[in-house]
């Protein structure tokens, strides 16, 4: 009988440890969730414009942001401030992923691809990325 009672006490202690471990895990997961999110935005360009409802992208500092573009003409896209450039083509979803380290408001605009590395022509911004402090 004594042996069974000890066994029950031991089980009780073990259960407590499992619960504490689960709580610790949940706390870690919550902390990570507060720190950063992975966000993907789908942007469809038609006749050189993004629909108005998609023109403002709001994220928080530290978020990992993916902009996935569908376009109707080849272009070179440019995220100012972060100075990231990437090429997109019709028929291929062109993505760019970056970590939003800088806060502020950053325009993305297109450099129509006439020749390689043509920077002569800059159109007005397609979208703005707004990065808020966490
Ligand atoms: Cu530019």
Describe this structure in words.
This protein has 134 residues and is α/β, with parallel strands linked by helices. It has 2 domains: 1-35; 38-132, Cupredoxins -  blue copper proteins (Immunoglobulin-like), CATH 2.60.40.420. Helices cover 25% and strands 37% of the residues. It contains 1 helix and 8 strands. The chain has one helix at residues 2-35, and strands spanning 38-44, 56-60, 64-70, 75-79, 84-88, 94-99, 104-112, 127-132. The strands form 2 sheets. It has a 5-stranded mixed sheet with strand order 2-8-7-4-5, with no helix packed on it. Strands 1-3-6 form a 3-stranded mixed sheet, with no helix packed on it. Strand 4 (75-79) and strand 5 (84-88) form a beta hairpin. It is elongated and about 75 Å long. The mean pLDDT is 80. Copper (II) ion binds at residues 78, 80, 109, 111, 122.
């Amino acid at each position: 009988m004594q042996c069974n009672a000890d066994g029950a006490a031991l089980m009780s202690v073990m259960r407590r440890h499992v619960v504490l471990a689960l709580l610790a895990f949940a706390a870690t997961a919550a902390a990570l969730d507060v720190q950063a999110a992975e966000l993907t935005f789908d942007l469809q360009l038609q006749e050189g414009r993004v629909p108005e409802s998609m023109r403002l992208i709001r994220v928080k500092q530290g978020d990992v942001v993916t902009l996935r573009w569908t376009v109707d003409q080849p272009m070179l896209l440019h995220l100012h401030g972060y100075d990231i450039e990437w090429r997109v083509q019709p028929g291929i979803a062109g993505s760019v992923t970056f970590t939003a380290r800088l806060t502020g408001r950053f325009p993305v605009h297109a450099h129509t691809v006439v020749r390689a590395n043509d920077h002569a022509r800059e159109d007005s911004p397609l979208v703005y990325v707004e990065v808020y402090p966490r």
